[in-house]
Amino acid sequence: MSDIEKQQQEAITPKSTTESATLHDETEIYQLKDEVLTKKMKLINDAIDEIGFTPYHLKLFFLNGMGYWTDTQLTFIESSVRTFINYQFGYKFPISNEMLAAGLLVGALFWGFSADLIGRKVAFNISLLLSGLFTIITGTMSSMASYCIFVFLSCFAAGGNLVLDTCVFLEYLPHKNQWLLTFFAFFWGIGQVIATALAYAFLPNNSCSSADYCPSHINRGWRYVYYTNGSIVLAMAVLRLTVVRLKETPKFLVSNNRDAEAIEILHHIATKYNRTCSLTLQELESLGTVEVNDDFRKHIDWKGLLVLVKHHLSILFSNKKMARSTLLVFLSWFLLGISYPLYSSFLPQYLATRGANISASTTQGVYRDNLISNAVSMGGPLIAGGILYFFPIIGRRGVLFIGGVTSMAFLFGYTQIKSRPQNVALSSISYATIYIYYSALYAYTPEVFPSAARGTGNSLAIACTRVGSVIVPLIFYYSNKSSTAPIWICGAFVGVVGFIALLFPYEPSKHRVA
């Protein structure tokens, strides 16, 4: 290993080696039902730790982060143009928001389940590409029906990114560097900042002012927003295909008795970056054969698929400890899926009832304030990652608790704001603190699901938050916009998920994931 590579390795490894040795156990976080698979996963983890962090991991970090970027970018596109879409097509009910949530829900389930059946590689390569294409096409639509269809399709394509990106990165990542998963939410902030900035650039001067007269030729702003955002997503998809050229993850291959392919990939990375990998095919094969072979190629009929899906689900509830962990993670995602979207959807309407001095009086001012808040939100993942790096003893659960409780406090504070500066300040801080929680939960979730069912578990967790997102437009549409009740509900839910984190049975920072 060269001096430069040693410096790179030290830069992404916790500084206190004594503390790190105490906190990090070489045993796996959970024992799988299949003893052969458990032993093989330990050898794969040993090999990955032996290779260490390489430039390949750095490429994966940025290109997988683009999936997070896309997810929030598409969400903020739809929310920023919704008013002008409704003006043009004569709608009041947020039907496009429902289609967005439905697309993300179906996409999370489809891509997540398929990732455990056919592997991570296919979905990783095509989901972002399809999302970019559908997003651009959305900007050409001439009716609400066709617009909603392509909102659904673009979000369906993007819906698997949050499921797959952490899975792929985690399954290549050395244990000492798993804290980097927390930083993925930083890309989420980038996506929403870009979406908000483009809305700020195009909508104020290219949109209708009311529903009374809103023909397409004076309401082109929303189309420009879709064209530019879709082009950015498409460019990121091309980078994924050309820069990384992702190979299937070794842990997925071993789960499917494809040991030779797993060894080939590990040795390829080690050779390319002058690292050591002492694991041999003979060592893996000497342990035996995995009992349940999940290889999709051997189960092409519907009955075989259902058997595999049932097997993946059973892994998530294979014992009391695993079942408790799975249910608490699902509950946390569901409550968060209600509280955060409700907060972001309801807050502008609530502030409008509090007086002109609370919110900006112009469209430009509204987008400017929103841009500031979203830019500050990127500090949340940096804070979460910093806590895990400098104070590893706190662990994932501690960061989740900190993020949930501080978010609750600042959301409750919103009921007392009396000026526009207070509005911008509290909005910015609330976004940042809730992103502390978000970033830790996004990292924690794939870590506590075994590799054989990681895509399935991650997809169901994300699906729980999407179900909450489907409910939010209904709450928002029928709620009293001048009432503080929704804000209290948001704060309470975020506080509850913070306390739930203390009940999680696993602490991934102390053990390796299988």
Characteristics:
514 residues; mainly alpha; Growth Hormone, Chain: A; 21 helices; globular; disordered N terminus
Largest sheet geometry: none
- Name the helicity range: over 70%
Q: Can you tell me the number of structural domains? A: 1
CATH class value: Mainly Alpha
Report strand %.
under 5%
Oligomer: single chain
Question: Overall pLDDT, averaged?
Answer: 84
Shape: globular
Give the C-alpha Rg.
23 Å
CATH superfamily: MFS general substrate transporter like domains
Please give the alpha-carbon distance between the first and last residues.
27 Å
Count of helices? 21
Number of strands: 0
Low-confidence sequence ranges: 2-25
Overall structural class, as computed from helix and strand content, comes to mainly alpha
Could you state the order of secondary-structure elements as H and E?
Answer: HHHHHHHHHHHHHHHHHHHHH
- CATH topology name: Growth Hormone, Chain: A
Please identify, by name, the CATH architecture: Up-down Bundle
What does the model show?
The protein has a single domain, classed as Growth Hormone, Chain: A (Up-down Bundle). It has 21 helices and no strands. This is FGR2.
